[in-house]
Design brief:
Layout: E1 15-18, E2 21-25, H1 31-37, H2 39-42, H3 53-65, E3 71-78, E4 81-92, E5 99-111, H4 120-134, E6 139-144, H5 149-154, E7 158-160, E8 164-169, E9 172-177, E10 184-189, E11 197-201, E12 204-208
Parallel strand pairs: 5-6, 8-12
Antiparallel strand pairs: 1-2, 2-3, 3-4, 4-5, 6-10, 7-10, 8-9, 11-12
Length: 218
């Protein structure tokens, strides 16, 4: 799903946001709503598969089967109707199983155009961040479409020079490439006290200190 397959969904309970909005983990019954919502989060970055119920059902099944909750699909509900979706998780190595525990990825956050309301996207993003923080992430990465850059910047994300973000974690080197030139790679420290330092290189932005080591990428 998206840039990498999700693992097992977490068991966190529903989160009431106010105004009747509820954020919780996606269930099989939410698949039609996910298909109607999530493709917009990816756009040019490959959202078409999310329109296929079989693809989403398979992804949720993969979530339920492995990786100890390290990937998460969430939905925002208003009057029992899916109005928003998010997909996040720990970065995975090339084998699709080994997790870079210090690195959280926000794969996508979307709210249906006909159901946009204050707070839905922010509530989904907060749910992603809280989950990633509990899983041990020290830094969060995402790839923002042009129209979403200001939204993420207002929530503490900073642009990272492309064409990639390079991070050395306890699981080894992780490369987060820019999918298309029009997007913006962005990063945010999970904790204010975390000393994660960006260093510009020819290959992109190297984040120093995420895994307690100094990167040798330069």
């Amino acid at each position: 799903m998206g840039r990498q397959k999700p693992g097992k969904p977490g068991r966190s309970g529903p989160r009431g946001v106010g105004g009747g909005l509820l954020v919780r983990d996606a269930l099989q019954e939410d698949i039609p709503g996910v298909c109607a919502t999530m493709p917009e989060a990816f756009g040019l970055m490959g959202g078409a598969p999310w329109t296929d119920p079989a693809y989403v059902a398979e992804g949720l099944a993969v979530c339920a089967a492995g990786l100890s909750g390290r990937q998460r699909v969430k939905v925002a509900l208003l009057d029992a109707t899916v109005v928003g979706c998010s997909y996040s998780g720990l970065a995975l190595g090339p084998d699709g199983q080994t997790a870079h525990r210090e690195i959280g990825l926000i794969h996508g956050v979307a709210v249906r155009p006909d159901s946009r309301r204050p707070g839905a996207a922010s509530a989904l993003l907060t749910a992603c961040e809280e989950y990633l923080g509990r899983e041990g992430a020290r830094v969060m990465l995402l790839e923002a479409r042009p129209g979403a850059v200001d939204f993420f910047r207002a929530r503490g994300y900073q642009a990272a020079a492309g064409p990639a973000v390079i991070v050395r974690s306890s699981a080894g080197m992780f490369l987060y490439p820019q999918s298309v030139p029009s997007t913006t790679l962005m990063r945010k420290n999970c904790q204010a006290q975390d000393e994660v330092v960006p260093v510009a290189t020819r290959q992109g932005t190297v984040l120093e200190g995420v895994g307690g080591q100094t990167s040798k990428t330069r």
